[in-house]
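Why does residue order matter? Because the sequence determines the fold. Keep that principle in mind as you read this record.
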Amino acid sequence: MIRTLRPLAIGLAVLLLALSTSVLAQATSTWDAIQERGTLRLGVASSDPWYFKDPLTNEWDGLGVRLGQALAEDMGVELETVETSYGNAAAALQADRIDIMFVLDATPERAEVADFLDAPLFTYSLAVLHSEDLDASTWEGLNSPDIEIGVVLGTSIDRTVTAALPNANISRYPSNDEAVASFQSGRSEVVAMFAPALTMLQQRVGVGVISLPEPVEPVPTSAGFRREDDSRWRDYLNETLQEFNQSGRTQELYQSYLESRGIDPSTVPSLGN
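Structure:
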C-alpha cells in the first residue's frame, strides 16, 4: 500500500506545482484588474493634507484622495480607499492589496519591492515644529543629544532626519497626529515633517511655530504602484500625472482641498514642480 500511494503523492505534488506556476504566469495585470473590478484601490494613511479621515463620517479626503478620484474618473471606474500606513505601503503594493499610493517617497528600501513614477509627483520642503524659544534656524543647531525630535516611523523623513542628525534623540511614531501629540505633551521638543502637512497640523492644534531649517532643499515625492511586466499601468500613470503637474491640476486639487477645510491656500506653501 505504501508503495502504491507514494507515486500517487508525488504525481499530485507535481500537478499542484504545475497548476500554481500556471496561475502565477497568468496573473492579471494591474490595468486589467482595475477594469475587471471596476474600482481603483488607493492606499490611504492619516497624513493631512494628503489623506484625512473625517471623524464624523469616516470618509477619506485630501490631495491624495482627490488625485485618486481624478484618475478613477478618467478611467471610468470607482475609487476604493484601503487603509494602510507609510511603513506598510510598499508591502501592500507588493501583496496586491492596493493599486497605488500617492505622496509615497521612492526610498531605496521601497524601490526594492515597488515601482515609482519616472518624474516627481511634486516637491516639498522639510520643516520643523518647535517652541518659540528654541533656535531651529539650521539643521546643525538641532543636531544635539539634548534635543528630542519626533518623526513618523518608516517615512523618508525618518530616514533623512536620522542621517542628518546623528547626535539627536529621535522618537518614531506611527502617524503624523501621534508625532504632533508628542510635541503637545512635551515628549518631543521638535517634530519634523514636510511643510504642508506640518502647517495643517499646527493650524489645527494651535501650538508651536514652524521653521524651515537651513539648508532648505526641496524634496521630490512620488506615487508607488505594484512592479510588474505589463507596462500599461505604469505608462498611464507617468503620462497622466505628469500632465496633471504641468497643467497645474495637482495644485488646483490641493487648493480646493485646503479651501474645503476653511484654510486660505495663500497661507500654506505651494507644491513645487
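Residues 1-26 have pLDDT under 50 and may be disordered.
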